[in-house]
Amino acid sequence: MNAVLEQVFQVGFLAAIIRIATPLAFATLGEMFSERAGVLNLGIEGIMLLSAMTGFTTASLTGSLWLGILAAIITGALMGALHAVLTVALGLSQHVCGIGVTLFGSGLAYFFYRLVFGQQSVPPSIEGFKPVPIPILSDIPVIGPPIFNQFTLVYLAILAIPISAFLLYRTPWGLSLRMVGENPRAADSAGVSVIGMRFQAVMLGGALMGVAGAFLTMAQFNAFTFGVISGRGWVAIALVVFGRWDPWRSAGAALLFAFVDALQLRLQAAGLGHIPYEIFLMLPFVLTIVAMALMSRNAVAPSALLKPFRREER
Amino acid sequence: MNNGSKGKAMLNGGLSRRAVLELGVLGLAVTALPRGAMAEDKKLKVAAVFATPIEEPWDHQVHVALQQAQKELGIDYKWSEKVQTADFGRVMREYAQGGYDLLMGDAFAAERESRRTAKQFPKVAFLFGSGAGPAEPNFGVFDNWIHEPAYLSGMIAGKMSKSGTIGAVAAMGIPEVNRLVNAFFAGAREVNKDIKRKVSFIGSFFDPPKAKEAALAQIDAGVDVIYAERFGVIEAAQQKGIYAISNMSDQSSLAPETVITGPVWNMFPTVEQAVKLVRAGVFTAQDYGDFSRMAKGGSSLAPYHKFEQILPAEVKDMVEKRKTEIMDGIFRVDVDENTPSSD
Predict the structure, then answer these.
(1) Which InterPro entries does the entry mention (chain A) (predicted)?
(2) Tens-place pLDDT, residues B82-130
(3) H-type helices in chain B, by residue range?
(4) Which residues of A, range 267-296, sit inside 8 Å of B by Cβ?
């Protein structure tokens, strides 16, 4: 057992947790903003895939990784706007439209990929982001190298957590956002544009989802392949509930999921006898569900979640 | 305009019941003609139905072979990709009704449906990738029987590993994957019986970021030659400066300093055989898997490229010798489809 522990708990393990958590954190924060304003965004999986593609393609064509990230952000925000037009402006079912946005985004991603790259034997690749060590901090023993020798996007993810919390809880904008998610009628009486706030929240959320997708094809990996998101968007939706619609808790949930995912990959390689590999693959999902059941039982969703706002209606 | 109205008039009034009957009989007679007799007149029409996008390495090799056949054998080739299981039978039927002579593709996810569809079109030849057997009268099967070069790759991995630990990152524990990974390890075991094996499954066909993380975890555990059954693994090997073995196609271009070689699947011999049989009108339901073996040219070891210089001569000689024995049928690589696990 000691040998197994030694094999598992290494510098590489901590670094892997952070890497796996980063796209989940971006996506979870994105979904959180959207839901806090009262809009469930099931388009997340498709938004992430399309942004992963546009980001990668832009970087591949222009040679600039940051232009790629910008493209992913714009793609995410536009797809968010599409979802908002359907669910906020038109007040259609958030479930149905979300699935529609996912299908649309996935199809579009694949279509444009074929258009740009044609048929390839091996996926076309780019020089992705390289880890950037932060001076001094990266020399701290044990936690220095895994946390402070990462991609710039990882640092941005870490920064995004307090910034999101600040925006949500300490600014008038955040107050309005929470209001339209809890009691849109009151917000409307107070002169807050419910439609406008919801649009902003869903588009900001989409932009964050876009960065999450681009991280997968430009930093963690350096190529776009079909299905590269592989359900990470759906995981983020669960993590928002697990995180009780709070930035800190949501990021914590992403970290826990990543911890178990990194752990199971290491346990698979550790040689624990003939345990079926499916058990390992299942671990992050099972533990997230268990943790969610235990810790988020009395979590309360934003009251106006899933409810379209129509001014003249009671 | 004029022509159109004339044609319409003929259809309405000019065509007697008798003429229709005669036409029908003529049609039957034409379809009953042996296909060989018509081969000169029209191009053989081949269609492929793929369950995944053609980027998926398995389907990709089938697609590439059919494109080659389009050029070299003069067939007419059409394809549909990413066909969901629920749609599989419908798409197959559309091609079968559209006058296609040979239908190919991957039936793994739709084994029953594709067999049922094939039965409805006894005059059309069906040749599908499958984990099951052929079905009379017209449903032949094939698969990626490339365990022989996988074994040879394992021998190289076993010789090139300094740490004595080699790994494999694969999609999931299905027979098509297991037999390659097991053959790879068996080859390594032959040259180094103490070698330690690490296996990780990522649980999907497309998730390079996860495959890369799985590979990085293995490298942390001491793996220094890794078999990249899926995309994503070679990048991890390149990043950490260890060797990799590719899969399905020659992937040296991804990382020339990293990829030593790897099993390559060439579907062309299978396609060529099927086209030949359909043209001669003698296509039968059978297992065409043998045409994926090394002796038939259906699989091979990828060229060494840069490793031509790096691989020690004794390793190359050893592999060459074993290769000749496999080609001559003297050495048989065992097929082991049990799910492998880490040591």
Answers:
(1) ABC_transp_permease
(2) 999 999 999 999 999 999 999 999 999 899 999 999 999 999 999 999 9
(3) 2-9, 17-32, 35-38, 57-72, 85-97, 111-120, 147-160, 175-191, 208-220, 233-240, 268-280, 307-310, 313-327
(4) 268-278, 281
The answer as to whether B66 is a domain residue is: yes
Q: Which of B82, B178, B213 to mutate to test the interface with A (most CBs of A within 10 A)?
A: B213
Alpha carbon of A13 to those of A7, A263, A291, B175, B220: distances in Å? 9, 8, 22, 31, 8
B168 plus B232 within the same structural domain: yes
Q: What are phi and psi of B22, to 5 degrees?
A: -60, -45
For B77-93, what is each residue's pLDDT tens digit? 999 999 999 999 999 99
Same-domain pairing of B183 and B257: yes
Structure tokens at B316: 């190359």
Looking at the complex, report in whole angstroms how far the Cα of residue A7 sits from the nearest Cα belonging to chain B. 6
Question: Do B202 and B312 have their domain in common?
Answer: yes
Nearest beta carbon to residue A268 from set B63, B235, B342:
B342
Kindly determine whether residue A225 and residue B208, on different chains, have CB atoms separated by under 8 Å: yes
Same domain (yes/no): B131, B198: no
Residue ranges making up the domain that contains A281: 21-118+146-295
Overall number of domains in chain A: 1
pLDDT-based confidence at A96, cuts 50/70/90?
Answer: very high
Residue reference for tokens 């906020």: A88
On whether both B155 and B108 belong to a single domain, the answer is no
Q: Is the Cβ pair A281, B203 closer than 8 Å?
A: yes
* Residues of chain A contacting B343 with CB distance shorter than 8 Å: 271
Give the residue from B185, B250, B239, B188 showing the smallest Cα distance to B212. B239
ipTM of this complex: 0.93
Nearest to A121 among B60, B167, B216 (CB): B60
Which pair of tokens denotes residue A299?
């979590």
Q: Is the peptide bond before A247 cis (omega within 30 degrees of 0)?
A: no
Contact B159, B150 (CB under 8 A): no
Domain of A227: which CATH number?
Answer: 1.10.3470
**Domain count across chain B:** 2
CB contact under 8 A, A272 and B342: yes
Q: Please give the residue range of the domain that contains residue B111.
A: 40-142+267-296
